[in-house]
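1st attempt posting a full record on here, be nice pls
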Amino acid sequence: MEVKRREFLKTGVATLGAASLSIMAAGVVGKKEVAEAADAPEYKLFALKYAGPFTSSVAMVFFNKDWEKTIARNYYIWAAQGGGQTIVFDAGVRPALAAERKLGGYIAPDQALARIGINAKKVEHLIISHIHFDHGGGIELFPKAKIYVQRKEYDFWVYDPISRRLPYAAVADPVAIKSFGDLRGSGRLVFLDGDQKIFPGIELLLTPGHTPALQSMAVNTAKGLAILTSDCAHIHRSFVEDNPSCLITDLPAWLNTYTKLRDKVKGNLGMLFPGHDKDMLENYPKVAEEVTQLA
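the predicted structure (as tokens):
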């Protein structure tokens, strides 16, 4: 009995010790995260409309609902400024394709950026959420930028023959995709494989569903953590009602993305900014022609 008692005490002490170390480690990690957040600059976030409005059935942007209703949507790029950095999120549509597609209300993305004093030719960091024509098509306007893209997204659009078939080809820009391919090995492409912090206060998040490896950008702001989600949602209603658009690559992955994004902002859905919602232009402070400050 005495031997068993000694073994029990040893086991109990070891268990308590391990638990204490786990608690201490969690505390250290928590303090580290708090310290990193305190050191991170507060960025200003801008939404820049470069085309639209366009009208479609609600069912296009809110899967299989309200077929009989219509909704207006805009095309945007975004910019984050803080800590001496300017980071552009998405590249919009190149001018030649805009003319070919007869995009109403179009202004070249570099001209939209000029409205808030950003010279696209000098931009050093360009984040591409996904390689659809209206988000990745304007990379030619950013000749010096490092281009950050998820490796899986890049490989699908540049190399996978499935991407040449109609459902995908309809939202692709072959000229831009060739440009992406030509950039490989140039030193300008930065490939990511999942979530990654790229600067203090800036984290790129793997958020697939709409495309194989769409990425969002989480940004430290004066209002707290904000996330530019691009087409994780075309309209904000998707985050609230848990229903994406009809343009789906992987629906289970998309719904898991919604859970991830909601958790990241701790349920503060007002800090999730979608890809095409007209409210970004109408419900936030205007800082220049068709440019608003989101945070």
